[in-house]
Amino acid sequence: MTTLFVFVIGIAIGSFLNVLIDRLPKGEAITGRSHCDYCRKKILWYDLIPVFSFLILHGKTRCCNKKLSFQYPLVEIITGISFTFIIVIPNEVRNLATEGGVKLFDYALLDPSGIALRMTMLGIVSCLIIIFFSDLRYHLISDYILLALFIFSLPAVALAKEGPLLSILFNSLASGLIVALPIFLLYYLSRERAMGLGDVYLSAIIGFILGWKSGYIALYIAFVTGAIYGISLLLLKNRKLKSRIAFGPFLVIGLVTMLFWADKIYGLIDMIYKY
Ligand SMILES: [Zn+2]
């Protein structure tokens, strides 16, 4: 029952994330009624019900019968699953990668620190979903969302890592700079062709949250998944060699992997080294 409730709340939040994904890159106000992307007509409330409206309308707009992006139900379902995962799923499957190996969910669900940590994780994951889809679709990462992500990561880092607050903050900031350095060089040397400034900031936040070691593994995962995606696009001949692929979504994949499955990745690395 709790699971279903959290899932439904997650889906509703996902619906709001869709609004941010579409409006922030265009610089539109985030309040105000939704209107059709094609004919600008206002969308009625019963066509804005997450997932259901998409299914009932067969993925088309009611006003002008144009194709609705699959992004809408996808973001809603992903948000629903992420929220359920963070709040309901047992502790063993999740941990925050830190050099000290401090578990993210060592705090019990109803412990005040446990509640605070889960709330900040919901904030972090929501920001990451926005970054993933708006960079994928519009090739833009909003500065507001990067700032929100950084603000959410402050309590997460303070709660999940051990030691005096000042040294945690110093180590995390240093890790952020270390992890952002190669991305900054790619950005600078390619004159913004390989990377955007948003990618530099995002990788700094990745280092801040994960520490430099896990941060570099997250970068590595981003490059590998990005390369696999790029090569499969070429093989499918969907794109010309020159067209740009946004890097932000792959940075998000790297961060999420290390945020939730760092012990599995370190286990894998150990296994590879043994052979
Ligand atoms: Zn329309």
TrEMBL record:
Record's keyword terms, sorted: Cell membrane, Membrane, Transmembrane, Transmembrane helix
Annotated Prepilin peptidase A24 N-terminal domain residues: 8-87
Transmembrane segments: 6-24, 70-89, 115-133, 140-159, 165-187, 194-211, 217-236, 245-262
Chief location category: membrane
InterPro entries reported for this sequence: Prepilin_IV_endopep_pep, Prepilin_pept_A24_N, Prepilin_peptidase/N-MTase
Positions of the Prepilin type IV endopeptidase peptidase domain: 124-231
One BP annotation, GO: signal peptide processing
Bilayer topology term: Multi-pass membrane protein
GO MF, one example: aspartic-type endopeptidase activity
GO CC terms in record: plasma membrane
Protein localization: Cell membrane
Similarity comment: Belongs to the peptidase A24 family.
Name listed for the protein in its UniProt record: Type 4 prepilin-like protein leader peptide-processing enzyme
Organism: Candidatus Roizmanbacteria bacterium GW2011_GWA2_35_19
